[in-house]
Design goal:
This protein is mostly helical. The chain is built from 19 helices and 19 strands. A hairpin with a 7-residue loop joins β13 (349-350) and β14 (358-359). The radius of gyration is 26 Å and the shape is globular.
Length: 605
């Protein structure tokens, strides 16, 4: 892909993580020798070349010039490295700008030519991830060069896609840059949307900008409310960004990264629940099919190109819990890949997970991500595990260590007088001489950067309390809870009066719980606050079960995600273990209603 040493550059920091000093030094030398610049007549995807090439160059440069020498791979002290990888990254960054220049808004066209620039006739359709997954690489390039145009335009692109979100804070998966609207309104956590959420969170961790955290918290809240199965917490469905109705019954292999992201967000309990679906899928096929149909319990797309997402989540969950289970899973994955996909000269993709048929193809992300996460899973003493700072892994698993502080001398990272020491954006640019003057033109980009977004980026949709009938003290009678959809804009607590009149005709006194709702009109709650609210409801369901089954049904109806009601479910749908043996338990008819599922769930609690 691209004729620019993709696998070599994508794997540079993997060698450093492995502690292979000779291999890292040799790989850096060969990159400099055989890739003098990106003056290459190559038609590239902006998203892919950013995460694989730009990220690989920047990560290796930071490692090679790290003043703390975290990984023991510093090369700039002995004269063997003089910032050539950063020069290459600058050259590449400027060659990607025409995709932004030609766009009618701040989001880039999905493709451009590294030598000749943007060509007319390119498709104007791109995805949310293609717009929002540029922030870490472009922002890091700006901080290393003091040429803030890269971070500015990447941030502006993220702001533009943020402004197009639905009233439910959801994004589509296909956006037309010319028509300025979503042409594909399916959303979830899989292909086309996945890394958008990841970069909102990691952008905050790495750069410390609270705008990115605010974006992530609002987006994560929407995912928990509208996309996640809140009965078992196992699956994130693909839903419509406007109506939140379920539109597909499959999950894709890319979505297996979500448990790892949830760990980074602090939701370890939720991550463990979400992880189990992918674990059982792997156990069944000894691989992760590209798409797995949850309703049919069979793959829709059966190939496995050695993707890393499941191993990535395994690694993060082990680091968070130190549970031996995740090491056992890693051992299983390692043995399966070695047994079924290893060849004489590398590792091949599985053409069909149901067979042993292989394809003669090994993606660069196998070495950059899959093998890196597997190695780190078992290497407890790796220097990365001793860090207590804001380092992150990009979506291609490139390690971004914290940049060395600005110094008057001796720093190969932040340049002298860096505007980022005071975080002042200056929209500067100094294109490399290898970039032809006729090729480089950014008048439209300058206009876009001068344009401000109208209003506050974090204005949330107005939530109405019309559907929450409450009396003067804010309490909602239990008998009316069925009318009340669970809104994530609520802070929920459950109170239990000491004396309650007996139910008519029952002859017994009931402790009838009352729901107290406190509205947060300025913004949505943080994900942790939402989790607390759901736990309170869950506790209410359990507590009330000993007294009255009808009351429990009301709470269960409130607890269920409203989106789930649009999809017929099987009685054994939430028996995740049944995925292993393709459902040995008797399956109910496909037309089973939500009320039956809720009743089944109620009995199991």
């Amino acid at each position: 892909m691209g004729d620019y040493l993709l696998t070599l550059v994508d794997t540079l920091d993997t060698l450093a993580v492995l502690g292979d000093m000779r291999g890292f030094q040799r790989a850096v030398k060969n990159t400099i020798k055989y890739l003098p610049n990106f003056d290459i007549d190559s038609h590239v995807q902006v998203f892919e070349v950013t995460i694989r090439m730009l990220g690989g160059l920047l990560s290796a440069h930071i490692i090679a010039t790290d003043e703390k020498n975290t990984l023991g791979m510093r090369l700039d002290l002995n004269g063997t490295y003089n910032g050539e990888l950063l020069d290459l990254a600058r050259d590449l960054g400027y060659r990607l700008l025409p995709a932004f220049e030609a766009s009618p808004n701040a989001a880039p066209y999905p493709r451009t030519n590294l030598k000749n620039g943007f060509a007319s006739g390119e498709t104007s359709n791109t995805c949310a991830a293609g717009i929002g997954t540029l922030l870490l690489e472009f922002g890091t390039l700006s901080r290393l060069t003091n040429e803030t145009i890269f971070e500015d335009i990447a941030r502006h692109a993220l702001n533009d896609v943020w402004a197009t979100r639905s009233k439910k804070n959801l994004f589509g998966n296909d956006f037309d840059l010319v028509k300025q609207r979503w042409t594909g309104t399916t959303t979830g956590v899989g292909a086309g949307v996945d890394s958008l959420f990841e970069y909102m969170l990691k952008g905050y961790v790495y750069f410390g900008d609270e705008q990115y955290l605010g974006m992530f918290e609002s987006s994560y809240a929407a995912l928990l409310q509208y996309s996640r199965d809140t009965v078992g917490g196992y699956a994130f469905f693909n839903v419509d960004m406007r109506s939140a109705e379920i539109v597909t019954s499959w999950v894709d292999s890319l979505s297996a990264f979500v448990p790892g992201m949830m760990v980074l967000a602090g939701d370890v309990d939720g991550a463990e629940s979400a992880y189990m679906l992918y674990y059982h899928i792997w156990r069944r096929f000894r691989a992760m099919p590209e798409r797995f149909n949850l309703f049919l319990r069979e793959p829709d797309l059966s190939f496995y190109p050695l993707r890393p997402e499941f191993i990535e989540s395994t690694y993060f969950l082990y680091r968070a819990t130190r549970d031996q289970f995740y090491l056992d899973v890693g051992e299983m994955v390692l043995e399966d890949i070695n047994l079924l996909q290893r060849t004489a000269c590398g590792y091949a993709s599985r053409h069909n997970v149901a067979t042993l048929e292989l394809e003669e193809r090994m993606e660069s992300f196998f070495l950059s991500e899959t093998m890196k996460y597997l190695y780190l899973l078992f290497d407890d003493n790796n220097p990365l595990h001793t860090l207590d700072d804001n380092h992150v892994f990009t979506t291609e698993a490139h390690v971004l260590l914290p940049l060395s502080p600005v110094r008057e001398s001796g720093s190969a990272q932040y340049p002298r007088g860096s505007s980022f020491s005071s975080r002042k954006l200056i929209h500067s640019e100094r294109p490399p001489t290898a970039v032809k003057p006729l090729f480089y033109k950014i008048d439209n980009i300058r206009k876009k950067l001068r344009r401000e977004h109208l209003g506050d980026l974090f204005n949330q949709p107005n939530y109405s309390i019309e559907n929450l009938p409450a009396n003067g003290n804010g309490r909602v009678p239990l008998s009316r809870l069925r009318q009340c959809p669970m809104s994530r804009a609520l802070a929920v607590s459950v109170q239990y009066p000491t004396t309650v009149p007996a139910t008519r005709g029952s002859g017994e006194s009931l402790r009838q719980p009352l729901l107290t709702a406190e509205w947060k009109p300025a913004h949505l709650q943080s994900p942790l606050s939402q989790l607390h609210a759901m736990r309170e409801l869950s506790r209410a369901i359990c507590d009330v079960s000993a007294y009255n089954s009808s009351q429990r049904e009301h709470f269960t109806a409130l607890y269920l995600n409203g989106a789930v009601s649009s999809m017929p479910l099987r009685a054994d749908f939430y028996d995740i273990g049944a995925l292993v043996d393709n459902g040995s338990e008797a399956a109910a008819s496909k037309g089973e209603t939500l009320s039956s599922v809720a009743a089944t769930y109620t009995k199991r609690m």
